[in-house]
Every structure is written in C-alpha cells, then in structure tokens.
Write a structure and sequence with these properties.
Oligomer: single chain
Distance between the termini: 58 Å
Structural class: alpha/beta
Number of helices: 21
Number of strands: 15
Largest sheet: 6 strands, mixed
C-alpha cells in the first residue's frame, strides 16, 4: 500500500514537503503526530491525525504518537485567541495513560513487528533540559525573523483582541522543533504529520534538523475538517464529541455520525474509516439511488462506533435509535443499560415519583396525573388511552385501571411514558 496515494484519494493531504513520497517508497519510515494531553480523552477532532497514523502503520511504516506533556504545559498559539491553563505533571501523566488506551484501538503497540507503534511524551526529554542549555543548543539555530514569519505567530500579534503573544507561547515552535530533532536522533523519525494549522511548527522542526545535523526530514499535513454547512466539525450543542464514554455515550457518539449530511458523509467515510475505495464507491452508488435510506451515514456510524467502542455498543446504539425512531418493542427497551437509556432520553421531561408508593402498586391514571403531571386531567388521559395514544415502557395502555408497581421499573428505577407519537416522559423512582 502506497501511503501517500492512500491519503490522496481519501482527501487527507493538504501540504507535503518535496521528497516525502520518495522517502516512504525507499524504506520503512518512522513518523510522528503530536497529541495535546490537556484532557484525559481524545475527541473526534483528534481522529484525523490518529487515522493518518493508522494508515501509516497499515502501509508498513512505524507510527509514533507523541503526547505533548511539555508543550501541553505551554499551549500552542496556532489558531488560538488566548493562552490556555497550564497542567501539573500528575494530571498530564493520567491524561497520557488514558490517551494511550484509546490509541490502542487504532494502532498496534504490542506486537513484535518492526513497525509496532510507540508512545512517547516530550516531557521526558524536556524536564531536565535547563533553560540556559536549551537556548544555547537550540535557540541559536533559528532567528526571531524566521519564527515571526509563521502564520500562527503573525495572526496572534496582529489580532484586534490585544491579547498578544507571551514569550512562553512564542517559544512553543522551538520546543516542538526540538521534539522532531530529538525523535530524529533517538528514533530515526524522518516525518512529522498533523493538521494544516501545524505546518509552521512542523517545518520549524525540519529546518532545525537541517541546521543542527545537516540531515533531511519531512512534513505532511491534512486539511482541517469542516462541515458542509460551515459549522465547526466535532462540536454539538453540548460541546465536543469525545471518545471516552464518560463524556459522550456510545449512543450519542453513534448518533453524531448517523446525522451528518449526505455531503459530509461522503467525505467522512473516506477519512474516518479504513474501508477501501471499491467498497466506498458501492456505498456512494447506493446513496445516490436511495438517499433516504442513508447507507453512507449508517456504515460510517457503524465502522467508527465499533472502532472506538465495540460491536456490542454499536448494536445497543442501533436498538436505542429504534426506540425513538422505529417500532421497537418493550423487550428492546428492557435490554438497554441505564447509561444508554438516559442518553436516548436526555432532555425529555422528568418526574420524580415515590418508590414507597410504587411498591404497593398504583393505578396508572393516578400515577400520570397526580404523582407525575404527564396529563393535566384524568379525563384527557382516559380519552387518549381509549384511542391507543398512551404507552408505558413501550407497551400500549388499554385500561385506565392498570396498576404499576416496582416490578415495572426499567433498571429498577425508571418508567418511560409515551403520550402520542413523539412526546416522551421519564419517571424516576426515588
């Protein structure tokens, strides 16, 4: 597999230094991507560079994931409008361990293959490097003029916000450049990859390697991912879409990909899956023939949910989606774990009911008018039951005298009430 050709047809190349493709065709090459460790989970904005590493390893090359423990303590000025909060070492180490577990779903770290992936942290080689030694050994090789010419620096200095650029942030590209030099010397790393906003920082590294060692290193960047409607990729109303289920449930993760536009689905399926060109072409034909069936979105959501979470989580997410949008049964509902149930019905009106009162049994007409204000009156509720418009736990009510007790609770805690086709209410027993 030709790595550059693979990225090219997937629409994943923005800039590439001359000689990069020739280097990769000549021999197995090591390349690295830097990952910001300011959280203990990656979000989907990180996935483009992670997929670059995945394709790199598939092509027989050796991927290195660099967790920026040192650079994370400083903050990259690229495309940012203000400095970030600095993290302590214990937090950075915790974040690094968590990120490695997530990367292991994409990369092979553990085999004895010559191109097994490696995780490094730049804090390890920066923590004992004195400031005087650093500016003498590294700082002298790059002029301020060279550093000031970088877009990330120019944008911050000329911004109207008057935030300016601290010396700490200005030094970022020097430290990132030294990362590349260090990996070039210790791991024979010849290539750095990243988003297009990193081009300036990456080429600082190639320049530092050239001036310090006379050696040749390379740079390759991918486009920053956008949405067809101009919105920011990976952001929802509730914030970032995370890979860790504690922050974004597998159901919400699956729904994010399922709900992308047709245009975005055609682009994302090339970037965020390892599906081949022919298979994607077939899906695109199916999408053109029957866009309402959304074959691209469904396959994209499946591939990436299974890769990040598991086949089981994917199946649970599909079943959960059917509860809201399909004709699922009470049996399907009862199979959902609490996390998924709450994800599906996030934002629906909730009512607390007394577990003690429920224990002795309570008529549904009292439960849904007096104990929980799902219906304004018993008369209105009786009418809707008679017309088949009320369900509890996905089972249609036929009698107003039906009694519910604690045995009816989902996950020993919840009752799901449906009024009409689209109105859901969650009763929580406490």
């Amino acid at each position: 597999m030709n790595f550059v050709e693979e990225l090219r047809w997937r629409g994943m190349i923005h800039d590439m230094m001359p000689g990069t493709e020739e280097q990769l065709q000549k021999e197995m090459t090591s390349a690295y991507v830097g990952i910001d460790p300011t959280a203990d989970s990656l979000h989907i904005g990180h996935l483009v560079s992670v997929m670059m590493l995945k394709h790199f390893q598939r092509a027989g090359h050796r991927p290195i994931a660099l967790v920026g423990g040192a650079t994370g303590m400083i903050g990259d000025p690229s495309m940012k409008s203000a400095e970030r909060n600095l993290l302590d070492e214990a937090t950075l180490r915790h974040n690094q361990d968590s990120i490695k577990k997530q990367l292991a779903k994409f990369l092979d770290f553990d085999s004895d293959a010559p191109n097994a992936a490696k995780l490094v942290n730049n804090y390890d080689w920066m923590k004992d490097y004195s400031f005087l030694d650093f500016i003498r050994d590294i700082g002298k090789h790059l002029t301020v003029n060279y550093m000031m010419a970088k877009d990330s620096v120019k944008k911050r200095i000329s911004s109207e916000s008057n935030v300016g650029l601290s010396f700490t942030e200005f030094s970022y590209q020097l430290i990132q450049g030294y990362d590349f030099l260090n990996l070039y010397q210790t791991e024979n790393c010849r290539l750095q990859m990243g988003g297009s906003d990193q081009w300036g920082n990456i080429t600082t590294g190639t320049e530092l390697i050239r001036r310090k060692t006379g050696g040749e290193a390379f740079a390759l960047t991918c486009p920053l991912i956008t949405k067809a409607d101009g919105g920011k990729f990976g952001k929802t109303e509730s914030g970032n879409v995370w890979l860790d289920r504690r922050y974004t449930s597998p159901y919400k993760f699956y729904q994010f990909w399922l709900n992308v536009s047709d245009e975005d689905a055609a682009k994302y399926i090339k970037i965020f899956t390892a599906l081949g060109r022919e298979e994607i072409a077939v899906l695109e034909e199916e999408q053109t023939a029957a866009p309402h069936l959304r074959p691209l979105q469904k396959r994209l959501a499946k591939e990436i949910t299974v890769m990040v979470h598991s086949e089981e989580d994917y199946e649970m997410a599909v079943e959960a989606s059917n509860i809201l949008f399909g004709n699922s049964t009470s049996e399907t509902l009862k199979k959902l774990d609490e996390e998924t149930l709450l994800s599906v019905f996030d934002g629906v009106p909730q009512f607390e009911i007394s577990r003690d009162e429920l224990a002795g049994g309570i008529k549904v007409v009292e439960l849904l008018t007096e104990k929980a204000n799902v219906f304004p009156s018993k008369g209105e509720m009786r009418k809707l039951i008679q017309s088949g418009g009320v369900s509890v736990n996905k089972e249609k009510l036929t009698e107003t005298e039906t009694v519910f007790d604690a045995s009816s609770l989902l996950n020993d805690k919840y009752l799901l009430v449906q009024r009409g086709k689209k109105n859901y209410f969650l009763l929580i027993a406490k």
